[in-house]
Amino acid sequence: MVVAIDGPSGAGKSTVARAVAAALGVPHLDTGAYYRMATLVCLEAGVEPGDAAGALRALDDVEVDFTPDGHPTLAGRDVADRLRAPDITAAVSIVSAHPEVRAAVVAMQRRWVASRGGDAVVEGRDIGTVVFPDARVKVYLTADVRLRARRRARDAEAAGASLEELVAQMERRDHLDSSRSTSPLKPADDAVVIDTSGLGVAEVVGRILDLVGMV
Ligand code: DC
Predict the structure, then answer these.
(1) 3-state secondary structure of 37
(2) Ligand 1 binding pocket includes 92 (Cβ within 6 Å)
(3) How many domains does the chain have?
(4) Strands (E), 47-161
(5) 72 CA to centre of ligand 1 in angstroms
(6) Residue whose CA is at the smallest distance from ligand 1 atom 3
(7) Which atom of ligand 1 has the smallest separation from the CA of 173?
């Protein structure tokens, strides 16, 4: 059974997806980590983020995986901390917009879930629409952009940026992610949309667990 959790950055996906996965006793997959790993591979190989063919070639040369506790690895190297650095965050929307890169990454994500017996809580932008259109439960988390920026300010990704800068960065990334032609960020037609602005983590997790129990 797949539970798909989509939504923009800072809506609470990771925290909620991890808690739902723990409650259900299934693995959690952070699909943004794949696009961040693809971006890191490009930067390290000297490939321009806009070069789709170069990105695909670079990605072909490395083994992308996760440790048992969910840390992303490239050829066995733990890159969890490196992936949240500002240079990766700035380029990831460009790398992740290439249809060729998306096709390769989506195939990796499906293989990962299949290798876990098909049960997982999968978070991203296109999980309910493209990666697992038959997911048993689809949730789209959203929140006010200023609140999302305030949440992001606590992360390493923020790197000392002001709240106004974070709001501007977030709006730019939301725009790139939702206006790209391949798999844009949007709720699946059959997704349940939850605005997390006024809600605590436990409340959001409880609503999703209710949905899992209902279907
Ligand atoms: O969730 P995140 O911030 O780690 O995602 C990083 C970028 O990857 C984000 O700008 C959009 C992209 N992404 C995507 O296009 N599709 C996904 N399923 C997950 C992330």
Answers:
(1) helix
(2) yes
(3) 1
(4) 64-66, 72-74, 77-78, 120-124, 137-142
(5) 14
(6) 9
(7) 10
Closest Cα to atom 14 of ligand 1:
125
What are the residues whose beta carbons fall under 8 Å from the beta carbon of 23, sequence distance 6 or more? 205, 209
Look up the domain containing 164 and give its range: 2-214
Residue nearest to atom 15 of ligand 1 (CA): 96
As separate numbers, helices (DSSP H) first and strands (DSSP E) second, the chain gives 8, 8
Which of ligand 1's atoms lies nearest the C-alpha of 176? 10
Single out the residue of 192, 200, 186, 199 nearest to residue 3, CA to CA.
192
Shortest-distance Cα residue to atom 4 of ligand 1? 32
Reported as a single tens digit per residue, the pLDDT across 170-180 is 998 899 889 98
User: In the Cβ-directed half-sphere of 204, how many Cα atoms lie within 13 Å?
Assistant: 26
Q: Look up tokens 């709240």; give the residue.
A: 163
CA of 123 to the centre of ligand 1 (A): 9
Q: Which amino acid is at 194?
A: I
pTM, two decimal places? 0.93
Residue 187's SS3 state is coil
Least-confidence region, from 75-79, 156-160, 196-200: 156-160
Q: Report the CATH number at residue 53.
A: 3.40.50.300
* CA 65–ligand 1 middle distance (angstroms): 17
Q: What angle do CA 62, 182, 17 make, to 5 degrees?
A: 70
Q: What is the DSSP letter of 97?
A: T
- Report percent pLDDT > 70 for the chain: 98
Closest to 82 measured CA to CA, from 45, 39, 50 = 39
pLDDT at 142: 96
